[in-house]
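Section handout 9: paired folding examples.
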Amino acid sequence: MSEASSYAAAGVDIAAGERAVELMKAKLARARRPEQLADASGFAGLFRLDTARYREPVLATSTDGVGTKVLLAQALDRHGTIGLDLVGMVVDDLVVSGAEPLFMTDYIACGKVVPERIAEIVGGIAEGCRLAGCALVGGETAEHPGVLGPDEYDLAGAGTGIVEAGALLGPDRVRAGDAVIALGSSGPHSNGYSLIRHVVARAKLAWDADLPELDRPLGEELLTPTRIYALDCLALAAGTEVHAFAHITGGGLAANLARSLPGHLDAELDRGTWTPQPVFSVIAGHGGVPAAEMEATFNMGVGMVAVVAAGDAERALALLAGRSVPAWRLGEIVPGGGRTVLRGEHARV
């Protein structure tokens, strides 16, 4: 007689999912805000909007994932930081408009629910939300046997923020003479990992390779989580005259900064003001990747850009230094055609 069919026999373990929820509860408690409300059913996250703080509140929303960086986390069997990457990719898009991140939700699809691994991933998301000052109000874990292997997963998230209509930042505020301030990245963040994996495979490098350019094994260096700038940017906007931000993600510095410029102004930047981290030299050198391709793919050490009134440049740099954010004057805004113009050369690439 054939064995009776069941959800578990098909590869979905409901009990494992429930255990994962229990394991992550303590970590979720760190990612709360006072406006968060309890929903006894658990079907939705509830958040009270404190409109008394605003005359004309505008909601901002953003959604993203972490791309193929998840494959590195899986290869190294280290899952505690990939959630920080997810939060950074979402909230640092929100703050470009001047919005304060309020809350996030996450979605994890996996081939098999391993409770400890799911709790580790969600723990990273919760820690990222804590660093961004927002609440993690809910999420979903879906088991997809047959679509993903037992050790495979992918994750995505969505965030909501709020900003006063009169405080919205963007191209309309940018003026000739404004200073362009760079906020340093922690590495490639969550972009360009398809190219990174291609280079590693072609160069026959191992993730645990000790390379002379790096202070730790290659895979560990590349797993460095995305820097989360949200609270730093909000502090900068509160303490100085910020006109625009640009989150430097896929497409690199030139393409992303151009999105925050009006059509009649350029951002003229000097490569000589900074040196990209050694990990970028490793990618370029072992992969034979041309400099133009590197700059079009990676942030090259600049994770966020602030465009501030020229008279506030030094105050902005001092404020960021006080928050332990590496920052420097990258260039200025000049008459032009809405482009980012990079001049000079780095000390090394």
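Moving on to protein 2 of 2.
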Amino acid sequence: MSETPITYAEAGVDVEAGDKAVELMKESVRRAQRPEVMGGLGGFAGLFDASVLARLAHPVLATSTDGVGTKVAVAQAMDRHDTIGFDLVGMVVDDIICCGAEPLYMTDYIATGKVVPERIAAIVSGIAAACEQAGVALIGGETAEHPGLLEPHEYDVAGAATGVVERADLLTPERVQVGDVVLGLASSGLHSNGYSLVRKVFESRGWAYDRDVPELGRTLGEELLEPTRVYSADLLQLIRTEGIDMHALSHVTGGGLAANLARVLPTGVLARVDRASWTPAPIFGLVQELGQVPVADLERTLNMGVGFCAVLPAEQADLAIEVCTDAGIDTWVLGEVSDRESGDPAYGEIVSGSKGVDAGACQMVGQHPAH
């Protein structure tokens, strides 16, 4: 039996470092608030005044949870941690907006091998900044030190958010009609999906993150850490714009454009997306070329430059494009909705049944313009 007392610190957990991290993040969290938030940082639970729901005739709560995936490995390798929060918030709150709900509040969870207060504070500063941009309150979180499970420099992040929508305004597949148009909203880059493939491609070719890449106009690492665009506040404004009758919204994440668009459509209809309507950013071509990645696999993995799809009546497309463009989001007509029978496998794969959802279908046709 050991005669030397074993403390929690000797086991690898530094409680004082955790307390210092909380102190460093307080100012960032303070900016990511809403009037409905009750209490302050450090309580056992985040409090949100639910009387805000009283303004709705039939409030429906929406919730979502997600992480960032292996993009955190890039942040760790580059020792830059202030952008990964945008990826987390985007993955969570932008799923909620897909049903028409306004995201209200969010909580986060960070697991790390060793609490380095400045690193934790940098991560949370990004989360708070993204929440502030999205109009979402960051009302709580947890940092856990896992020595022996994670290396000292390693960490992972996850989050969950809750929103609310009037039941009559809920976006469901039944709203979509044959003849609707599909708008594409540009992504800021790779966002936060497919990084296992992306990292594998560049590692296999010996490309370091500090490599200057002329096609990208910056280093590879800077490109890979480009924060996910957070759409929710701008899409909420679009939904509430007079003259807009939004039928469906699709967040293009894991599974790619076709699979995620298909899951918000009703059975019996097909969205035909024309690749010729946009040119993906150079990073997507680099991944394909260096890795000799088949096009079908690439499109099932990456967003290919489209971060969101909006489905609405054709006569409202110009107004919707104007609203999104004014918000700084490049937006264009991506395709149209027709009946399922119009799909011809000779022109490309017809994607349906994604995520176990019995829904509509999507077909990608044509070719992207050359750079």
